[in-house]
């Protein structure tokens, strides 16, 4: 009898060590991971959570120890390099094979089998649950696996091993390397949960994740299991509710073409029956029930949440819920910064990082305005602008477009028009003068310069760079219309049917500086051993992604270059082969069209095309060089930052970019006077936090918000982003590089996030500059907020042969990171397949339930 009691006690200890009931109070983050802890909390609160159990992190650790896997895992990781995804994937497959080849220890298998038997062995979902210690910032979002409709003890045990192995995906390994997380310290829990045979599923947000409105509740709903939504395979119905009353404010009924359903041993996608495709998934009663659940869960957590739900037999279940710890700011007032009309980003377009840093707003933008005023003075138009030209509103640059034109200004306007007849000789003269100025300013040895001398050099370098940019932009302004003119001429007078090539085909295979740099990068990739970047960076490393000195130059952050090198090493088409292919396509298109044109029409066609091709080449070549001043400028600013950090003004040299010009000037004066500097760390921290909030705002194109820009502005600068985007399922922009692609979207705020872009994903960003070119080696498509036919992204996308849509106005706001989208570079449409994305603690996005 005593022996039986002891055996029973032993079994109970084993069960509690390796498994826990779903609602067990011991199910903490450290024991069952973030997903498991959240489900335990919901279950204890009496919310409708499907039954199940946890497999603890101790089970993972025991499996590793008993099978002596840790040394073999660490051995496999010896060659791991966060900058080489192909190597990481090879390592990941090797580790997965180690897991597959070993047996789960008997004690653990017994604990899991017993817990599964207690559920009466139903079909289950087996989900990975990462611990807070593993990834404190991202909680392994999107990097571990879930297995659905698993039946039987043997299948459950096998799915558990696969979940454990998914701790070692290439992306998870890279993340730990970059964040200095010890690989040997990580562990993974697993949640085994009864699979609800859902006829409908979706996601609910207890705030509006797009606008930030706290008084709204959002529900997305589709037929079948939730994986069709999470995987981006279907556009769900979309509802916006008043949170308190449950009143439905907006309803968008989608064409739901696919749904995920259960089959033997797993799930599959099936077409939605025709009669249900356009039918509402949720009726009024269902909406009210879900809204009540959302309010209850939010009250339980005490903060807004995103909730993954499903429905079966008329009853709703909560599959996952997670606090939204980094919310969009609540809707803000966009005050007009002064009299007249103000337009977002005018005059800077691609070359402004937003939100801009305080130093950019107070030092670079005034220099920009001074350079612009100096330019118009040369044309006798000094009094056309008798007001501030630029203001920063919530971190976003706005320019005033009110012009005080009089008849006396006509000669100056004519001189401007004449100056737009731009030649390569004119560009080369401007570039030579610019390079000479930078060389003179960059001549002195940094330690020998006083703080005041460094500061003066920074302002002189900024002035030189901005003056050069304005000169080349003034000269090529007329050429901005060249490609549009060619496209219209081609579509209206030359193209006859769909068999004729797209207009963008005629603008491919052109020689320009960014592609010259790309060839040099390819040459590096073909060297044996580790490629040396120093020589490349000395020649091309001055490329910049923004006028904002906060943004690193290519020399400061060569990671995108390393990724491009890896892509070429992995077999990506070489630049020469790509150019030859593009040239052949262009010549074949030319032959097809010219063969049927009359002599007169042929001459017109060739002349219009030559102008468009020249415009693309001239602009890219000139723009490529604009960053020459930014390398020494950033170096000087960081030297000032080091001196101020040494004086305990703030913590690290990079904090200098978060000062205003007045604060920097005062600190520089104090340094040279040998006086103590004012403590600035608190202001720096506050401004960094504010910038994190500002980056999630969607700035209106023009201010005041209730008035459209003047007709003359719309006529002179026809930008698609001025159009109101009404369709919830698509975005409209300007198709600038033909082709059509469907893939995962990766939304990048700036080039410093380049490592997040995986091969064959669609790059979504505000705009690109020549510094972004290496990213095109692994990009399947491009979508931007700003830009047009002669923007950098348009030109380079054509050369790389990837579909691109520019000027959507709100792509970075409307498209969620990780969402599946379709880009049509001919029509200019971007189809949004799903918006079911949750906000994480860093303001980035991930799939719900991760």
Description:
42% of the residues lie in helices and 16% in strands. With 850 residues, it is an alpha+beta fold. Among the domains are: 2-194, ATP-grasp fold, A domain (Dna Ligase, domain 1); 200-323, ATP-grasp fold, B domain (D-amino Acid Aminotransferase, Chain A, domain 1, 2-Layer Sandwich); 355-419; 719-846, Phosphohistidine domain (Glucose Oxidase, domain 1). The strands form 6 sheets. The chain has an 8-stranded mixed β-sheet. Strand 8 and strand 9 form a beta hairpin. The radius of gyration is 30 Å and the shape is globular.
Write the SSE topology:
Blueprint: H1 2-18, E1 19-21, H2 29-44, E2 52-55, H3 57-66, H4 69-76, H5 85-100, H6 106-118, E3 124-130, E4 146-150, H7 153-165, H8 170-178, E5 188-194, E6 200-205, E7 216-223, H9 227-230, E8 237-242, E9 248-252, E10 258-263, E11 266-271, H10 274-277, H11 284-301, E12 305-312, E13 315-323, E14 342-344, H12 358-378, E15 390-393, E16 396-400, H13 410-419, H14 424-441, H15 451-476, H16 480-494, H17 513-525, H18 534-540, H19 559-569, H20 575-594, H21 599-624, H22 630-646, H23 661-672, H24 681-694, E17 702-703, H25 711-716, E18 730-732, E19 734-737, E20 740-747, E21 761-765, E22 779-784, H26 792-800, E23 804-806, H27 811-814, E24 820-824, E25 829-832, E26 838-839, E27 845-846
Parallel strand pairs: 20-21, 21-22, 22-23
Antiparallel strand pairs: 1-2, 2-5, 3-4, 3-5, 6-7, 6-12, 7-8, 8-9, 10-11, 12-13, 14-16, 14-17, 15-16, 18-25, 19-23, 20-24, 24-25, 26-27
Helix pairs in contact: 1-6, 4-5, 5-7, 5-8, 12-15, 14-15, 15-21, 15-22, 16-21, 17-19
């Amino acid at each position: 009898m005593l022996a039986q009691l002891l055996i029973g006690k032993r079994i109970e200890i084993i069960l509690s060590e390796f498994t826990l009931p779903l609602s067990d109070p011991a199910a903490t983050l450290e024991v069952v991971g973030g997903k498991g802890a959240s489900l335990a909390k919901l279950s204890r609160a009496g919310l409708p959570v499907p039954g199940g159990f946890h497999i603890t992190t101790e089970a993972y650790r025991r499996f590793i120890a008993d099978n002596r896997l840790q040394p073999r895992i660490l051995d496999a990781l010896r060659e791991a390099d966060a900058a080489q995804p192909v190597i990481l994937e090879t390592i990941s497959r090797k580790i997965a094979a180690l897991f597959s080849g070993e047996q789960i220890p008997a004690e653990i298998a017994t604990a899991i089998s017993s817990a599964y038997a207690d559920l009466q062995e139903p079909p289950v979902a087996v989900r990975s649950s990462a611990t807070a210690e593993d990834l404190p910032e991202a909680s392994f979002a999107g990097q571990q696996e879930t297995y659905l409709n698993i039946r039987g003890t043997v299948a459950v045990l096998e799915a558990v091993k696969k979940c454990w192995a998914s701790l070692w995906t290439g992306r998870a390994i890279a993340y730990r390397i970059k964040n200095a997380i010890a690989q040997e310290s990580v562990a993974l829990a697993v949640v085994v949960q009864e699979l609800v045979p859902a006829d409908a599923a979706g996601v609910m947000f207890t705030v509006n994740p797009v606008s930030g409105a706290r008084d709204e509740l959002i529900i997305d709903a589709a037929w079948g299991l939730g994986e069709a939504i999470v995987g981006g395979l279907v556009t769900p119905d979309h509802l916006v509710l008043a949170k308190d009353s449950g009143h439905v404010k907006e309803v968008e009924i989608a064409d739901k073409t696919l749904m995920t359903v259960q089959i033997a041993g797993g799930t599959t996608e099936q077409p939605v029956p025709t009669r249900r495709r356009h039918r509402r998934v949720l009726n009024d009663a269902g909406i009210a029930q879900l809204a009540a659940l959302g309010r209850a869960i939010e009250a339980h957590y005490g903060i807004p949440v995103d909730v993954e739900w499903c429905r079966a037999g008329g009853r709703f279940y909560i599959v996952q819920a997670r606090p939204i710890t980094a919310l969009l700011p609540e809707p803000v007032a966009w005050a007009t910064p002064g009299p007249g009309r103000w337009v977002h980003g005018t005059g800077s377009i691609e070359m402004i990082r937003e939100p801009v840093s305080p130093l950019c707003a107070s030092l670079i933008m005034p220099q920009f305005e001074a350079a612009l005023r100096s330019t118009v003075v040369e044309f006798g138009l000094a009094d056309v602008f008798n007001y501030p030209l630029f203001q920063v509103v919530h971190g976003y640059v706005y320019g005033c477009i009110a012009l005080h034109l009089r008849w006396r200004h006509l000669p100056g306007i004519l001189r401007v028009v004449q100056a737009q007849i731009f030649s390569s000789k004119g560009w080369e003269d401007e570039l030579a003068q610019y390079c000479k100025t930078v060389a003179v300013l960059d001549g002195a040895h940094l330690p020998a310069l006083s703080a005041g001398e460094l500061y003066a050099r920074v302002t002189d370098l900024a002035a030189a760079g901005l003056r050069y940019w304005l000169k080349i932009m003034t000269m090529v302004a007329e050429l901005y219309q060249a490609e549009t003119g060619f496209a219209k001429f081609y579509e209206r007078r030359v193209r006859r049917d769909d068999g004729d090539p797209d207009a963008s085909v005629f603008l491919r295979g052109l020689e320009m500086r960014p592609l010259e740099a790309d060839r040099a990068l390819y040459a590096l990739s073909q060297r044996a051993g580790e490629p040396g970047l120093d020589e490349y960076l000395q020649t091309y490393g001055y490329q910049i992604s923004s006028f904002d000195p906060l943004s690193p130059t290519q020399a400061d952050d060569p990671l995108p270059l390393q990724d491009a090198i890896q892509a070429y090493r992995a077999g990506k088409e070489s630049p020469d082969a790509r150019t030859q292919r593009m040239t052949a396509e262009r010549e074949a298109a030319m032959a097809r069209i010219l063969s049927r044109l009359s002599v007169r029409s042929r001459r017109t066609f060739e002349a219009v095309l030559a102008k468009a091709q020249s415009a693309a080449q001239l602009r890219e070549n000139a723009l490529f060089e604009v960053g020459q001043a930014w390398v020494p400028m950033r170096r000087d600013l960081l030297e000032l930052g080091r001196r101020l950090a040494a004086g305990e003004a703030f913590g690290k040299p990079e904090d200098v970019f978060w000062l205003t010009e007045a604060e920097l000037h005062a600190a520089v004066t104090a340094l040279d006077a040998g006086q103590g500097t004012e403590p600035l760390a608190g202001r720096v921290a506050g401004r960094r936090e504010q910038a994190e909030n500002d980056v999630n705002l969607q700035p209106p194109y023009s201010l005041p918000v209730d008035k459209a820009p003047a007709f003359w502005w719309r006529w002179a600068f026809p930008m698609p982003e001025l159009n109101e985007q009404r369709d919830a399922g698509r975005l409209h922009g300007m198709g600038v590089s033909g082709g059509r692609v469907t893939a995962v979207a990766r939304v990048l705020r700036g080039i410093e996030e380049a490592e997040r872009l995986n091969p064959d994903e669609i790059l979504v960003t505000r705009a690109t500059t020549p510094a972004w070119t290496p990213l095109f080696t692994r990009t399947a498509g491009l979508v931007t907020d700003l830009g047009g036919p002669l923007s950098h992204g348009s030109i380079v996308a054509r050369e790389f042969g990837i579909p691109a849509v520019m000027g959507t106005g709100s792509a970075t706001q409307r498209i969620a990171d990780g969402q599946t989208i379709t880009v049509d570079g001919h029509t200019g449409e971007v189809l949004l397949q799903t918006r079911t994305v949750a906000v994480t603690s860093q303001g980035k996005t991930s799939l719900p339930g991760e």
